[in-house]
């Protein structure tokens, strides 16, 4: 793990002017969880992915879909 950093999540969070802690509070997880997702070291549940997308005003495809290489 760790080879697929979630840059799109970080960019969407920063565009909404949210810290990791603020996003974590909004979706009911710890700041460390958001940091791990952004670093590519944690695979969130679909429920958490949906909650994150709702807070950020994005879709699952925008944040979590990985293009095949």
TrEMBL record:
The keyword DNA-binding applies. GO terms for molecular function: DNA binding. Keywords: DNA-binding. SMART domains: HTH_XRE. Residues 9-63 form the HTH cro/C1-type domain. PANTHER family: TRACRIPTIONAL REGULATORY PROTEIN-RELATED-RELATED (PTHR46558), TRANSCRIPTIONAL REGULATOR (PTHR46558:SF3). This is Cro/Cl family transcriptional regulator. It comes from Paenibacillus borealis. The lineage of its organism: Bacteria, Bacillati, Bacillota, Bacilli, Bacillales.
């Amino acid at each position: 793990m760790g080879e697929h950093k979630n840059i799109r999540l970080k960019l969407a969070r920063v565009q909404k002017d949210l810290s990791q802690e603020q996003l974590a509070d909004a979706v009911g997880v710890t700041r460390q969880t958001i940091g791990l997702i952004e670093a590519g070291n944690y695979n969130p549940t679909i429920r958490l992915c949906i909650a994150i997308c709702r807070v950020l005003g994005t879709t699952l495809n925008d944040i979590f879909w990985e293009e095949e290489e």
